[in-house]
Design a protein that fits this description.
Strand content: 15-25%
Structural class: alpha/beta
Radius of gyration: 12 Å
Distance between the termini: 21 Å
Number of helices: 3
């Protein structure tokens, strides 16, 4: 039994195309969570998604700017409609 098992959970990680956000997404994915990567640059998100999928992580992307309230509302609505509820 895994001590930190996130199987069946979906985690939205902002700023996750690189750096600390990417590392957090990688760790949550390794613990079994399905990851939704978020950043402004869709190209960088695709690169991060490809790298995480190569590690066996279930990962989707959602490009939007978290400093824009309307973009956040629309982005969360798209995630919940297309991917499902966000747990983390």
């Amino acid at each position: 039994m895994k001590l930190f098992d996130l199987s069946g959970r979906t985690a939205l990680v902002t700023g996750s195309s690189k750096g600390i956000g990417y590392a957090l997404a990688q760790a949550l994915g390794a613990a079994g969570a399905r990851i939704v990567l978020n950043a402004r640059d869709a190209g960088k998100l695709q690169e991060a998604q490809t790298a995480l999928r190569a590690q066996g992580v279930a990962v989707e992307t959602a490009a939007f700017d978290v400093t824009d309230a309307a973009a956040v509302d629309a982005g969360i609505a798209r995630i919940e409609q297309d991917i499902g509820a966000i747990d983390i």
